[in-house]
Amino acid sequence: MKPTLGMFLAVFGIAQAQPTIESLADRLEAANTPDQRAAILQESSTKGPGLFTFCLERGGKRYTERNYDGAMKSFQAALAASTANSDQRGIGRSWFAIGRTNLTQGEIELGVERVEKGLAASTAASDKPYVGSELKALSRYYRMLGRLNEARDVSERGRAVYGELGDKHEFTGMLLPLSNAVNKLGDLEASASLLRQCIRESEAGGFADHLSAALNNLAGVYFEQGDYERSLQLAQRSHQLLEEDPHANRSIVISTFTNMAVDLGRMGEDARALETFDKAIKMAKEFKQNGPLDWALYNRSVFYHVRGKAELALADLRPVAAVKANDANRMETLEVQSELASLLLATGDMRGAVETAEKIVTEARGIGAPKLLWSALETVGDGYLKLGDRDKARAAFLEAIAAVESMRSRLSGGEDEQENFFHDKVAPFHGMVRILIEEHRIFEAFQYAERAKARLLLDVLKSGRAEIDSSMSDEERQHERELSETLVKADSALARRHDPKNETALLAAWEKAGSGLDGWRSTLYAAHPELRFRRAEFQPITLDQTAELLPDARTAVLEYTVTSDAVYLFVIVRDGAGKPRLTVHVLNRPATLARDVEDFRSQLLSRDLGYRPKAALLYNQILGPVAELLRGKTRLVIVPDGPLWNVPFEALIAGSGRHLVEDAAMFYAPSVTATRQAMHLIRTRDPNQRTLLAFGGPSAAAVSEAQQVRQLYDRGASAMFTSEQATKEHWKTEAPNSRILHVATHGVLNGNNPLYSYLAFSSSSKAEEDSRVTAREILQSNLHADLAVLSACETARGRFRFGEGLIGMSWAFLVAGTPATLVSQWKVDSAGTSDLMVAFHRNMRAKIPKPEALQRASLSVMHNPAYRHPFYWAGFMLVGNAY
Fold first, then answer.
1. pTM of the model
2. pLDDT value at position 416?
3. CB within 8 A of 148, min separation 6: which ones?
4. Is 277 exposed, middle or buried (0-12, 13-18, 19+ CB in 10 A)?
């Protein structure tokens, strides 16, 4: 008989049992100790296998009726009978039944101990069906107790046992606890790989229960990496599968509602998030599902906390924390306590926050849970910092940073899936910045600020992305290309969906395509470990090395670090002796900073003639304190942070009443370290590489712009595709072999997921694929251009992510191998755009450096009375290494 969760619940033949067996069973159940039961059996002649079977089956019936005390007595009687007969098989089954009853009643540690006894006996008896069931149970409860390495080990053993038994359903199902265990151990890459394998096996075997669970858990992996849109789409597909199943577990259905609400909240869709939370909570109360109710309340508490509504957050969290205080599920308890500690800190209870978080730290160290560890250490560090104990704060922040770096070394997927990882994990780095500044250790503070910027981009620059591609065989490259194109088509179809009826099929196709590509990469790296994308160990830049970013005394580097309560501005200039000198300036962070930035942008977008007061206000806030340092500087290298990525610095108005661009050229860099690394890249030149590749269309203005730009370059060293010839096919074949890329086509921003933003090329009747080129496709390309000029609207826009910067088109081009990109911050008037673009290229052809070429082009547009407003000339920014 194949055992399942309820395998000891079935009842066979009780009505036919002999009276002597039943009466003996009654006597055994009335006994209070194992010794009493052994004495009863010693006196009796009726103690064969029939007694064991009777007791086990009676216990199963009582268990089904939720008479757990009665069931326990029956199972203990079965254990006594099998022990008297030295029946290892019966002993194993009896201990398993006893342990499962303990677990059902919430006695987790006792239940686990008894299931372990069952496993030992079943293993000795070679009772493989029960060995599999016992390993499956332990895989779950070890994880709950925080025994994560053991949970991983028994999951692997359980899968092997079910493989030997030929039980494909359970064989596939064991991938779920295995992936959960390695996830809690911080190995997101291994967890995602196991879940993708579970999805493939579930689809092949028709295992709907495992498929919905794997999709939901994979959504969790993407959530942890900050890819909230993909997480939401996976959770939605899981939820749809559950709703189609009339026998679906209600608690899992409720949990998918909660997970979708969390994703919506992180995507900024607050109204939909709260509506979905309400559905989860209402359903949990209606069906008396306490576990899912606690999960929903906990996550809604986090939602309120992030939005600064600490009292609402505490109202949701306190009852959950009270329930979990005595819960044997240590992992859930620790997660709730970690959030409670963070909330106590937010409400000013520093001592309470530190005491609570330190207890979590001790336990998280013991069980090897880096995610719990870094979040609790962050609270400890912040708490001690507010209490004035810098030494203890420093120790906490440094350990938290080590935990984050450990997790980062085991991320899943490609660059497109990793770009969000750092976003919610930079607080320990910022804590070290503050401590070191207070101790007047300025350069060390700057190094920690750098460690929290452009990390994935720096990895790509150091690891040699092109080298990885060239190491693949032609067949491997072709297969990866085909899988990538399948994913692009699925992405496009999902983005254009109009009929909700088609959404399930589109989601399934999209997930299958993504899983196929990810699975292929995992297989490729397993076969060729040398190809694995390498995460470079961070090497902090030295003060002497910063001199390479200061070609002369007229250049200044300005790097911002925006924290929750301050803005730090690091400025690097050459001193009187020509050596680099670093200063730091602590700026007040007004609560309205983000709103001030957006108000200023809105004024420029609406061509408001009254923009000057706001332009002067922002200048005073973010540049005013260093105005004297910037006197005489004609080139600024700006490393923004947070909302400052959305500031068009060119349009700020200094104390002189002049726009900043009138006195200085500028470009924007994701970090100083990444910029220096890009300067040292050895870029091999193909002697046949063309100078310019231009695309224009579909509008007449875009075609005219491309034609005017092309006229500035040698016809033999340039190529142009306009109107119906400006296709994606031509982009894919021609872009990798061009030094300057100029794209004058329509651009569309996806605010929720900037990597789905795209450039719209012309459709080709021969082309099977979509005519859009998404940012995701671009970052997976292997480009060799020195500069990409994107005059499409809003190509500079994206979503800011701590640890990387502004994620969008410009970031994608940087990752793809193009060191500098000229992009637009808003939809600019076509005529003004063309004038500026042509002037920029003309200046470039005159050997004027890129920043100064853009500055002069902007000023030429500004001096045209028709285009004097910053709307026409401040919308373009150079991003990357523009030296």
1. 0.76
2. 45
3. 142, 181, 184, 185, 367, 368, 369
4. buried
